[in-house]
Amino acid sequence: MNSKKILVVDDNDLILKMLSVKLKANGYEVDGSTAVSSVRNDPPDLILLDMYFPPDVAHGGGVPWDGFLIINWLKRMDEAVGIPFIVISGGDEENLKPRALAAGASAYFRKPIDQEGLVRTIRRTLGELEDDPVF
What we know:
Blueprint: E1 5-9, H1 13-25, E2 29-33, H2 38-41, E3 46-50, H3 67-75, E4 85-89, H4 93-102, E5 107-110, H5 115-125
Parallel strand pairs: 1-2, 1-3, 3-4, 4-5
C-alpha cells in the first residue's frame, strides 16, 4: 500500500500520540514533530498544524511561534508549494478559524479534535474521498 505522509506539527505530546495512532490506523504514515524544517528534506502530502507554540526556552527563548508565522514561512518554501494544511487549535475559534481559512487552510478543527471528522477531511483533502453523501 502506498500510504500518504502526514506531518503533525504540535507541541503537545498527547495530541501527537493520539493523532499518530488514529492516522496510522487509517493507513497514513505519520511524522509527529514540531520541526517544520523536515518539509525541506521529506515533503509530506498534508500538514496538520497547531496555532500556538511556547517560546523555545532551550535556545534562548524569544518570540513564541504561532501557526500563522509557520504558514507564511511554508508559503515561501519551494518544497511546500501545493502541500495542503489543516489547522488544529484550542484557541479562540471565532477569531482563528476565519484567519486560518483566509491564510489557505483546507479546514479548521477545534481541540479536542473530532477524530472521525478529521480523518474524513484528510481523505477529502487528499482526493481519497468524494464529498460526504447527503442524508
